[in-house]
Amino acid sequence: MFDSIEFREFNGERHACVKGRLQVWQVIEVAEGYGMDVARTAEHLGLSLDQVQAAFHYYEANPEEIDPVIADNQSITFEQIKRLLPNARLFEVRLSGD
Q: What pLDDT is attached to residue 26?
């Protein structure tokens, strides 16, 4: 049904992935920043349009699988990262006009 999607195990859990590449949730999280634009997402991630479209189709059919993973990723705080990576440093990037 989803020819460009494969399943891999991460930390004992099955995750949908674009074959040989990123997990579907990662593609969707980036795509959300581009208003779900296939071409801009593909360019940003170095994927083909077909690969991104496959991730979109999988997500459309399985949002209950993907949305919680994205929410988990977005809930991670710098303090949690610092515990895992003690040398991590927080910095801000100011965009012109801000």
A: 97
